[in-house]
Amino acid sequence: MDSREKLLAAALLAFSELGFAGASLRAIAVSAGFDVAMIFHHFGSKEGLWQAVVESMAADFQQSLSHELVPLMEGDWPIAERVTRVLDVFVQKLIERPAVTMLIMREMPLPGERRDFLVARLLRPSCDGLLPFWLEAMEAGVLRPSDPVLFHVGIFGAMAMILAFRDVLPRLGSAEMDLAEIKAHLYRGLLADPA
Hints:
Largest sheet: none
Structural class: mainly alpha
Order of helices and strands: HHHHHHHHH
Helix content: over 70%
Number of strands: 0
Mean pLDDT: 93
């Protein structure tokens, strides 16, 4: 991992945990093992660093879309199985990179340039890449008919919250469940005719 990648990883954690205003460039640089001058060298400013973090998230999504999701969405399996496989990738990504979800959830309620940038670079391409698949699944009767944008945003939000609450669910009255059981319950609630 080069200096730029280390700074991006440290910045993602800081922005997701503390927000843009709360994240300190000095703390980000120290966390990555550098002086703050390295941030200015690579990104020019705090805003430039934040935008580079989002661009990195968008690049990861585009790679996942082309290498993982498109082959699943266009595969030869029955549509219900393709939906389940796509949802499995979503769940795995949310587990692997919780800071991405936290950053998105932190920025969405705040109107402004950062939210607009996040929508343009990450959320809009995510919708554009997956809405035709959600519509196909709805038309096939596999997913309950609904607005595909609301479904897309809703499934992302619901999965993120359930995974974030995973350790707390038993204290709220849910049975102890491993990840496979949680996914089975989620899919049963989503799919009109679960695979």
